[in-house]
Amino acid sequence: MTRLALLAVxxxxxxxxxxxxxxxxxxxxxxxxxxxxxxxxxxxRPSEGSAExxxxxxxxxxxxxxxxxxxxxxxxxxxxxxxxWTVALPxxxxxxxxxxxxxxxxxxxxxxxTVVRLDAAGHEMSxxxxxxxxxxxxxxxxxxxxxxxxxxxxxxxxxxxxxxxxQGQALVERSALPGRPVGPRGSLRAALAGxxxxxxxxxxxxxxxxxxxxxxxxxxDDRVMRLDFAxxxxxGAWVAVRLGREDATPSGDFEVTRDREVIVALEPNGxxxxxxxxxxxxxxxxxxxxxxxxxxxxxxxxxxxxxxxxVWRVSR
Length: 316
Description:
The structure is a single chain. The chain is mostly beta strands. Helices cover 3% and strands 54% of the residues.
């Protein structure tokens, strides 16, 4: 089913939740330790400032994983059954990565007010300026997205602004979408249901030129600490949320307990198909984009613990 056909199904369905049916298939695909070696992830924990770990990942149609290992200034490339390799990056504070559709990459440098395009070897091909119409401050950009009709950046996890065309050329006139683009005629937005703290998420489709349509309400058994992903593939929708509890400590501080990631798969009509839980560890490391939809139609995640990181693959 194409994304355009899927949008039509979502728009014309009631989206009511029913009992979950087939289980999702969960795989631990890669296990990595911390360090600067070939098969390791960089990590910094300064005495002042934020701890840094791998920022994000992107996966192509063959299941090849590209991890943005910004501490080691590289993309770490992981393939099943093969040795890892790396693509050296310019010395810039990149925060997100996506594929450019031609073998190269787009990387987000919000501090430098740019999105940089690199070829497969890591050589700079072009760059776009972030600040401009519909985007007053580059530091408000939280992620990068390439859709069928161009290049988008997400603003404060709320809406996306189209800054480039399909060739990556800057647009004179920009446009904005609520949520993230899911096709040429719409966008999808996941948001907390009501005021925080809350245990529920609403998933809403915004078709171009038509009123928004709530696809589903997802309820959970703990507080939603963060929305990590919402998007469509050929078979329906995916949502990933981080759950946990904030419990008071004897010293009067708070600590997060019961930390975990819940992955939810929905059918094309918005009905929940299945959900699964992945283990997480609450760490100070700044990991802004740990979940992505791979080109193979599976949801991929990189979660850290004190010893390293695990790359997970979740599929229908």
